[in-house]
Amino acid sequence: MSRQQSVVAAVLGSVILTCGGAPAGEPSAASVVVLGASPARTTAIVDHAEEVRHKAFTQLLGEPRPRPWIERCAIHVHATPASFAAAVGGPPATARGATSLEFGADRVISRRIDVMGDGPDVIPDALAHELVHVVLADHFTAAAPPRWADEGIALLFDGIAKQARHEADFRAALSRGLAFSAADLLAIEHYPVDAARQRVFYGQSAALVRWLIARRDAATFIRFVADAQSGDLPAAFERHYGLEMSAVFDSAWKEVPPIHSLSFNDAKN
Predict the structure, then answer these.
(1) Are 218 and 59 in contact (CB under 8 A)?
(2) Residue 46's closest CA among 17, 78, 15, 68?
(3) Which residues pair with 110 in a beta bridge?
(4) Model's pTM, two decimal places?
Protein backbone atom coordinates (compact mmCIF):
# COMPACT_ATOMS: atom_id res chain seq x y z
CA MET A 1 0.00 0.00 0.00
CA SER A 2 1.44 3.39 -0.99
CA ARG A 3 0.68 6.65 0.76
CA GLN A 4 1.22 10.18 -0.41
CA GLN A 5 0.21 11.63 2.92
CA SER A 6 0.09 9.82 6.22
CA VAL A 7 -0.08 10.79 9.85
CA VAL A 8 1.32 8.89 12.81
CA ALA A 9 -0.09 10.19 16.10
CA ALA A 10 0.41 9.14 19.67
CA VAL A 11 -2.90 8.67 21.50
CA LEU A 12 -4.74 11.38 19.57
CA GLY A 13 -5.85 11.54 15.98
CA SER A 14 -3.81 14.38 14.54
CA VAL A 15 -3.67 16.73 11.58
CA ILE A 16 -0.91 17.19 9.01
CA LEU A 17 1.08 20.29 9.85
CA THR A 18 4.06 21.92 8.21
CA CYS A 19 7.40 22.34 9.97
CA GLY A 20 8.55 25.86 10.71
CA GLY A 21 11.86 27.45 9.90
CA ALA A 22 14.89 27.58 12.16
CA PRO A 23 15.22 30.48 14.59
CA ALA A 24 18.35 32.59 14.58
CA GLY A 25 21.22 30.89 16.36
CA GLU A 26 19.86 27.36 15.92
CA PRO A 27 22.77 24.98 15.08
CA SER A 28 22.68 24.31 11.32
CA ALA A 29 23.52 20.61 11.80
CA ALA A 30 20.59 19.99 14.13
CA SER A 31 17.80 17.79 12.85
CA VAL A 32 15.19 19.56 14.98
CA VAL A 33 13.98 23.10 15.53
CA VAL A 34 12.31 24.02 18.83
CA LEU A 35 9.50 26.55 19.08
CA GLY A 36 7.77 27.89 22.17
CA ALA A 37 10.66 27.53 24.65
CA SER A 38 13.22 29.86 26.18
CA PRO A 39 16.71 29.95 24.60
CA ALA A 40 18.24 27.92 27.45
CA ARG A 41 15.49 25.34 27.36
CA THR A 42 15.67 25.21 23.56
CA THR A 43 19.35 24.29 23.73
CA ALA A 44 18.67 21.50 26.23
CA ILE A 45 15.77 20.13 24.16
CA VAL A 46 17.81 20.17 20.94
CA ASP A 47 20.68 18.32 22.63
CA HIS A 48 18.32 15.73 24.12
CA ALA A 49 16.44 15.27 20.85
CA GLU A 50 19.67 14.66 18.95
CA GLU A 51 20.76 12.11 21.57
CA VAL A 52 17.46 10.22 21.40
CA ARG A 53 17.41 10.42 17.61
CA HIS A 54 20.91 8.92 17.40
CA LYS A 55 20.04 6.16 19.89
CA ALA A 56 16.86 5.25 18.00
CA PHE A 57 18.58 5.13 14.62
CA THR A 58 21.45 3.08 16.05
CA GLN A 59 19.53 0.60 18.18
CA LEU A 60 16.41 0.19 16.07
CA LEU A 61 17.55 0.72 12.49
CA GLY A 62 21.23 -0.21 12.74
CA GLU A 63 22.44 3.21 11.56
CA PRO A 64 25.19 4.39 13.94
CA ARG A 65 25.81 7.58 11.95
CA PRO A 66 22.40 8.80 10.80
CA ARG A 67 22.36 11.79 8.51
CA PRO A 68 20.72 14.98 9.79
CA TRP A 69 17.19 15.53 8.57
CA ILE A 70 17.15 18.12 5.78
CA GLU A 71 13.47 18.66 6.47
CA ARG A 72 13.97 19.31 10.14
CA CYS A 73 11.44 18.25 12.74
CA ALA A 74 9.62 21.15 14.37
CA ILE A 75 9.16 20.55 18.09
CA HIS A 76 6.41 22.79 19.46
CA VAL A 77 6.47 23.11 23.24
CA HIS A 78 3.10 24.06 24.74
CA ALA A 79 2.71 25.74 28.10
CA THR A 80 -1.05 25.21 28.35
CA PRO A 81 -3.57 22.49 27.47
CA ALA A 82 -5.44 25.04 25.34
CA SER A 83 -2.38 25.65 23.18
CA PHE A 84 -1.79 21.92 22.77
CA ALA A 85 -5.44 21.27 21.91
CA ALA A 86 -5.48 24.04 19.32
CA ALA A 87 -2.42 22.55 17.62
CA VAL A 88 -3.41 18.87 17.53
CA GLY A 89 -7.19 18.98 17.59
CA GLY A 90 -7.86 17.71 21.09
CA PRO A 91 -6.98 18.32 24.75
CA PRO A 92 -4.10 16.44 26.43
CA ALA A 93 -6.46 14.47 28.69
CA THR A 94 -4.36 11.34 28.34
CA ALA A 95 -1.72 12.46 25.83
CA ARG A 96 1.32 14.58 26.51
CA GLY A 97 2.46 14.62 22.90
CA ALA A 98 1.45 14.06 19.28
CA THR A 99 3.41 13.51 16.09
CA SER A 100 2.45 14.62 12.58
CA LEU A 101 4.19 13.43 9.42
CA GLU A 102 3.69 14.21 5.76
CA PHE A 103 5.02 11.92 3.04
CA GLY A 104 5.92 12.64 -0.56
CA ALA A 105 6.77 9.73 -2.86
CA ASP A 106 9.17 7.58 -0.82
CA ARG A 107 10.36 9.99 1.85
CA VAL A 108 9.19 12.17 4.70
CA ILE A 109 8.75 15.79 3.66
CA SER A 110 7.35 17.26 6.88
CA ARG A 111 7.87 16.37 10.53
CA ARG A 112 6.20 17.95 13.54
CA ILE A 113 6.00 17.08 17.23
CA ASP A 114 3.74 18.83 19.74
CA VAL A 115 4.49 18.26 23.41
CA MET A 116 3.22 19.60 26.68
CA GLY A 117 5.96 21.58 28.37
CA ASP A 118 4.21 22.41 31.63
CA GLY A 119 5.93 19.77 33.75
CA PRO A 120 8.73 20.40 36.24
CA ASP A 121 11.47 19.06 33.98
CA VAL A 122 13.37 21.00 31.32
CA ILE A 123 12.88 18.18 28.81
CA PRO A 124 9.18 17.54 28.01
CA ASP A 125 8.25 14.09 29.28
CA ALA A 126 6.73 12.92 25.97
CA LEU A 127 9.56 14.05 23.71
CA ALA A 128 11.57 10.82 23.43
CA HIS A 129 8.43 8.77 22.74
CA GLU A 130 7.34 11.09 19.93
CA LEU A 131 10.81 11.22 18.39
CA VAL A 132 10.80 7.45 18.01
CA HIS A 133 7.65 7.71 15.88
CA VAL A 134 9.47 10.21 13.67
CA VAL A 135 12.58 8.03 13.35
CA LEU A 136 10.51 4.96 12.44
CA ALA A 137 8.82 6.96 9.67
CA ASP A 138 12.17 7.14 7.85
CA HIS A 139 12.14 3.34 7.64
CA PHE A 140 8.42 2.71 7.09
CA THR A 141 7.79 5.09 4.20
CA ALA A 142 5.47 2.84 2.18
CA ALA A 143 3.07 2.09 5.02
CA ALA A 144 3.03 2.93 8.71
CA PRO A 145 3.91 0.12 11.14
CA PRO A 146 0.92 -1.41 12.94
CA ARG A 147 -0.32 0.49 15.96
CA TRP A 148 0.86 -2.07 18.51
CA ALA A 149 4.40 -2.11 17.10
CA ASP A 150 4.66 1.66 16.65
CA GLU A 151 3.46 2.42 20.17
CA GLY A 152 5.14 -0.57 21.80
CA ILE A 153 8.61 0.38 20.59
CA ALA A 154 8.10 4.09 21.37
CA LEU A 155 7.03 3.25 24.92
CA LEU A 156 10.41 1.61 25.54
CA PHE A 157 11.95 5.08 25.19
CA ASP A 158 9.70 6.56 27.89
CA GLY A 159 10.93 7.02 31.43
CA ILE A 160 10.94 3.93 33.65
CA ALA A 161 8.17 5.24 35.90
CA LYS A 162 5.87 5.86 32.93
CA GLN A 163 6.63 2.40 31.56
CA ALA A 164 5.85 0.91 34.95
CA ARG A 165 2.44 2.61 35.02
CA HIS A 166 1.58 1.17 31.61
CA GLU A 167 2.80 -2.25 32.75
CA ALA A 168 0.62 -2.04 35.85
CA ASP A 169 -2.44 -1.17 33.73
CA PHE A 170 -1.82 -4.21 31.54
CA ARG A 171 -1.13 -6.61 34.40
CA ALA A 172 -4.30 -5.50 36.20
CA ALA A 173 -6.35 -6.12 33.06
CA LEU A 174 -4.65 -9.49 32.54
CA SER A 175 -5.46 -10.63 36.07
CA ARG A 176 -9.12 -9.67 35.57
CA GLY A 177 -9.39 -11.32 32.16
CA LEU A 178 -9.74 -7.96 30.41
CA ALA A 179 -6.54 -7.95 28.35
CA PHE A 180 -6.67 -8.15 24.57
CA SER A 181 -6.12 -11.51 22.93
CA ALA A 182 -2.96 -11.56 20.82
CA ALA A 183 -5.09 -11.68 17.66
CA ASP A 184 -7.17 -8.67 18.73
CA LEU A 185 -4.11 -6.66 19.74
CA LEU A 186 -2.38 -7.28 16.40
CA ALA A 187 -5.53 -6.28 14.49
CA ILE A 188 -6.03 -2.89 16.15
CA GLU A 189 -5.85 -0.08 13.59
CA HIS A 190 -7.19 2.81 15.66
CA TYR A 191 -6.57 3.73 19.26
CA PRO A 192 -9.30 2.45 21.60
CA VAL A 193 -11.80 5.21 22.37
CA ASP A 194 -12.25 4.20 25.99
CA ALA A 195 -9.45 5.64 28.12
CA ALA A 196 -9.10 2.52 30.27
CA ARG A 197 -8.86 0.25 27.22
CA GLN A 198 -6.38 2.68 25.73
CA ARG A 199 -4.11 2.29 28.75
CA VAL A 200 -4.30 -1.49 28.48
CA PHE A 201 -3.46 -1.25 24.77
CA TYR A 202 -0.29 0.73 25.52
CA GLY A 203 0.84 -1.56 28.30
CA GLN A 204 0.15 -4.74 26.38
CA SER A 205 1.79 -3.41 23.20
CA ALA A 206 4.94 -2.57 25.14
CA ALA A 207 4.92 -6.01 26.78
CA LEU A 208 4.69 -7.79 23.42
CA VAL A 209 7.45 -5.68 21.91
CA ARG A 210 9.73 -6.32 24.92
CA TRP A 211 9.07 -10.06 24.59
CA LEU A 212 9.91 -10.06 20.88
CA ILE A 213 13.07 -8.00 21.31
CA ALA A 214 14.21 -10.25 24.15
CA ARG A 215 13.93 -13.29 21.85
CA ARG A 216 16.35 -11.76 19.33
CA ASP A 217 17.11 -8.03 19.25
CA ALA A 218 15.55 -4.72 18.22
CA ALA A 219 16.86 -4.91 14.65
CA THR A 220 15.21 -8.31 14.16
CA PHE A 221 11.95 -6.91 15.49
CA ILE A 222 12.03 -4.04 12.98
CA ARG A 223 12.76 -6.46 10.12
CA PHE A 224 9.92 -8.71 11.27
CA VAL A 225 7.43 -5.83 11.30
CA ALA A 226 8.54 -4.67 7.85
CA ASP A 227 8.32 -8.22 6.47
CA ALA A 228 4.88 -8.73 8.02
CA GLN A 229 3.52 -5.76 6.07
CA SER A 230 3.35 -8.05 3.05
CA GLY A 231 0.24 -9.48 4.71
CA ASP A 232 1.47 -12.84 6.01
CA LEU A 233 2.20 -12.18 9.67
CA PRO A 234 2.59 -15.85 10.76
CA ALA A 235 5.05 -16.55 7.93
CA ALA A 236 7.08 -13.45 8.80
CA PHE A 237 7.16 -14.51 12.45
CA GLU A 238 8.40 -17.99 11.58
CA ARG A 239 11.10 -16.57 9.29
CA HIS A 240 12.49 -14.16 11.86
CA TYR A 241 11.88 -16.05 15.11
CA GLY A 242 11.79 -19.71 14.04
CA LEU A 243 8.52 -20.35 15.88
CA GLU A 244 4.89 -20.93 15.01
CA MET A 245 3.13 -17.71 15.99
CA SER A 246 -0.21 -19.26 16.96
CA ALA A 247 1.51 -21.57 19.41
CA VAL A 248 3.34 -18.91 21.42
CA PHE A 249 1.77 -15.46 21.10
CA ASP A 250 -1.06 -15.91 23.57
CA SER A 251 1.38 -17.19 26.19
CA ALA A 252 3.97 -14.48 25.55
CA TRP A 253 2.84 -12.42 28.55
CA LYS A 254 4.20 -15.08 30.93
CA GLU A 255 7.75 -14.49 29.68
CA VAL A 256 7.91 -10.71 29.35
CA PRO A 257 11.25 -9.46 30.73
CA PRO A 258 11.23 -6.90 33.57
CA ILE A 259 11.08 -3.27 32.48
CA HIS A 260 14.50 -2.43 33.95
CA SER A 261 16.14 -5.22 31.96
CA LEU A 262 14.92 -3.97 28.59
CA SER A 263 14.43 -0.25 28.19
CA PHE A 264 16.02 2.39 25.99
CA ASN A 265 15.55 5.12 28.59
CA ASP A 266 17.00 5.27 32.09
CA ALA A 267 14.97 8.32 33.08
CA LYS A 268 12.83 7.86 36.17
CA ASN A 269 9.81 9.97 35.15
Answers:
(1) yes
(2) 68
(3) 102
(4) 0.84
